[in-house]
TrEMBL record:
<dbReference type="Pfam" id="PF02852">
    <property type="entry name" value="Pyr_redox_dim"/>
</dbReference>
<dbReference type="InterPro" id="IPR023753">
    <property type="entry name" value="FAD/NAD-binding_dom"/>
</dbReference>
<feature type="domain" description="Pyridine nucleotide-disulphide oxidoreductase dimerisation">
    <location>
        <begin position="365"/>
        <end position="472"/>
    </location>
</feature>
<protein>
    <submittedName>
        <fullName>NAD(P)/FAD-dependent oxidoreductase</fullName>
    </submittedName>
</protein>
<dbReference type="Pfam" id="PF07992">
    <property type="entry name" value="Pyr_redox_2"/>
</dbReference>
<keyword id="KW-0274">FAD</keyword>
<dbReference type="InterPro" id="IPR036188">
    <property type="entry name" value="FAD/NAD-bd_sf"/>
</dbReference>
<feature type="domain" description="FAD/NAD(P)-binding">
    <location>
        <begin position="13"/>
        <end position="326"/>
    </location>
</feature>
<dbReference type="InterPro" id="IPR016156">
    <property type="entry name" value="FAD/NAD-linked_Rdtase_dimer_sf"/>
</dbReference>
<comment type="similarity">
    <text>Belongs to the class-I pyridine nucleotide-disulfide oxidoreductase family.</text>
</comment>
<dbReference type="InterPro" id="IPR001100">
    <property type="entry name" value="Pyr_nuc-diS_OxRdtase"/>
</dbReference>
<dbReference type="InterPro" id="IPR004099">
    <property type="entry name" value="Pyr_nucl-diS_OxRdtase_dimer"/>
</dbReference>
<keyword id="KW-0285">Flavoprotein</keyword>
């Protein structure tokens, strides 16, 4: 039976606070085939950050940028594009259509179609199995799931908050392109946003990162390649620096995605000052744990249950495990199935790699970063594997001479690296860098999650001339490396 929007009732089996990808999925999985009912409490748009202000609009803005860059690197097409630029209004209008003009009608219909109820309002956990929504108390018979997402972090820099800087929502829902921009941070949001801002007409972009490289969670060669590419496009990248002061005499209340006032004077700790039209803060995110009350954290076990509170679950960004949609949905599936199993009195399957076990805790996370070149990663980097105590073997390959790459672009830039556990001979991590490389990562994710031995992967031959051909080259390199190491010395 279809659910209702804002129904006049106050008790459900399951209450989910937050209707983003993680919350929607937890509610769906808790109720399908279980006989349980559930409500999603959402203060803004059902669907959450991802479809309206994050993954979807950012990738909608980047798709034409990637296509243009590839076309400019293809003999036969290059002359047609040489002095051509993107049609900015066309790109922004397409983005607006893809985000349904910020109307969550499709997402609400989908939730109601799954039999879920939706209550619009701001929820807060106010007691055991009790949630208050704008003064009204809702009660859960079985479980409360917190799926409240995250918000951007604002570093404590004098004048920064007061200057009303841009955050990720402004840059994904951008209506005006700032000519001169300072980007604070060198992580994923900063690198992706600098890529589309430059292509859409920002003439001066200065990216300020306090550490010594971009994308610090990735293999160092990945951040270095993105840095080279940003610099080549005209972005200035400054490492080991941060902001010490921001001054913006004129602030205008122009709304999300519009320039928030007059020019901004930014002082860096190097002593340099810059004058820009906007500042984008992309300095990480923080979980919205305030739904539990001030200062409360949400440490969860592998069943997504909050420690010490068997009726309370946390999934998605708010759990702090990773800030990725597909991981939030994965956690939502686990929480939903665990809630349904516990309500039915069924034991949880405790065997390793079962449907109730959170593999994210072992580092089995895939991510694609849509810079130019694209970075696709799964599992652990070499450094992360060593930190976890693995005896690591690695193999790396430059992809510029791979036939598939040479067909795709005149100057294909690419690199790949596998991280292998010497003791068990299974893949721990993989990084692929290059144009159109994103879809390659799922093969690595399957191998990591299934703990496939490298010796078995040897028989999984990639088709020629696709980028998957790289697997055969990598496995050959592992073989060569091992044979050379096992040969007696001279
Ligand atoms: C610019 C950008 C680009 C990104 N690109 C990607 C990408 O390409 N791929 C990827 O995997 N991830 C990407 N991410 C991350 C991704 O957007 C998040 O990981 C994902 O949205 C998290 O889902 P969630 O359900 O945990 O939280 P959210 O999507 O944030 O949803 C949480 C929901 O809870 C609601 N809420 C919060 N508090 C309350 C309350 N008290 N009462 C009621 N409702 C409440 C919010 O309104 C929101 O709708 C990107 C993030 C950003 C910022
Ligand atoms: N394609 C994708 O999968 C995608 C895209 C966008 C965002 N996301 C997710 O969103 C999350 C947030 O992204 P993000 O880029 O905001 O955070 P991040 O943690 O990836 O990067 C933040 C960067 O800002 C730097 N920084 C922080 N404070 C600073 C300061 N005061 N001065 C100078 N530098 C400073 C940090 O050193 C770090 O490099 C990420 O964890 C990512 O998983 C994913």
């Amino acid at each position: 039976m279809a659910g209702s929007l804002n129904p006049d009732r106050s008790e459900w089996d399951v209450i989910v606070i937050g209707g983003g990808p993680a919350g929607e999925t937890a509610a769906q999985y808790a109720t399908r085939f279980s006989g349980l009912d559930a409500v999603i409490v959402e203060r803004e748009l059902v669907g959450g950050e991802c479809p309206f202000w994050a993954c979807v609009p950012s990738k909608a803005l980047l798709a034409p940028v990637h296509l243009l860059a590839t076309g400019r690197d293809l003999g036969g097409i290059r002359p047609l594009l040489a002095d051509r630029h993107l049609d900015v209004d066309g790109v922004l209008n397409r983005r607006d259509a893809i985000v349904d003009h910020f109307d969550d009608g499709r997402q609400v219909e989908r939730a109601l179609g799954w039999g879920l109820d939706v209550v619009r309002g701001r929820g807060r956990v106010t007691g055991e199995k009790a949630v208050t929504v704008d003064g009204r108390t809702l009660r859960a018979r079985q479980a409360v799931v917190v799926a409240a997402g995250s918000r951007p972090h604002t570093p404590e820099v004098p004048g920064l908050r007061e200057a009303r800087p841009w955050y990720s929502r402004d840059v994904t829902a951008m209506h005006e392109v700032p000519r001169r921009l300072l980007v604070l941070g060198g992580g994923v949001v900063a690198c992706e946003a600098a890529t589309w801002l430059r292509a859409l007409g920002a003439v001066q972009i200065t990216l300020v990162e306090r550490s010594t490289r971009l994308l610090t969670d990735q293999e160092p060669f990945a951040g270095a390649a993105v840095g080279d590419s940003l610099r080549a496009s005209g972005v200035e990248v400054r490492f080991g620096q941060t902001l010490t002061r921001i001054e913006r005499p004129t602030i205008n209340d122009t709304g999300v995605g519009r320039i928030h006032g007059g020019p901004v004077t930014v002082t860096l700790d190097s002593g340099a000052t810059l004058r820009v039209d906007e500042v984008l803060v992309a300095a990480g995110r923080r979980p919205n744990t305030e739904v539990l009350g001030p200062g409360e954290g949400l440490p969860v076990d592998e069943h997504m249950t909050v420690e010490g509170m068997p009726w309370l679950y946390a999934v998605g960004d708010v759990s702090g495990a990773s800030y990725l949609t597909h991981i939030g949905k994965y956690q939502g599936r686990i929480a939903g199935e665990v809630i349904a199993a516990r309500a039915a009195g069924r034991p949880l399957d405790e065997a390793p790699f079962n449907r109730h076990t959170d593999l994210v805790r072992r580092g089995a996370v895939a991510q694609v970063i849509f810079t130019d070149p694209v970075i696709a990663t799964s599992g652990l980097t070499e450094a992360a594997a060593r930190r976890r105590g693995y005896d690591v073997e690695t193999v790396e390959m430059d992809l510029s001479q791979l036939d598939a790459g040479r067909v795709l672009r005149d100057h294909y830039r690419g690199r790949t690296k596998l991280v292998i556990d010497r003791r068990t001979d299974v893949l721990l991590g993989a990084t692929f860098l290059g144009t159109e490389i994103a879809e390659l990562i799922h093969a690595a994710t399957v191998a990591i999650c299934a703990a496939t031995p490298i010796s078995a992967m040897w028989h999984a031959i990639g088709s020629f001339p696709t980028l998957s051909d790289v697997w055969s080259h990598l496995l050959e390199s592992v073989d060569t490396q091992r044979m050379a190491a096992s040969r007696p010395g001279p």
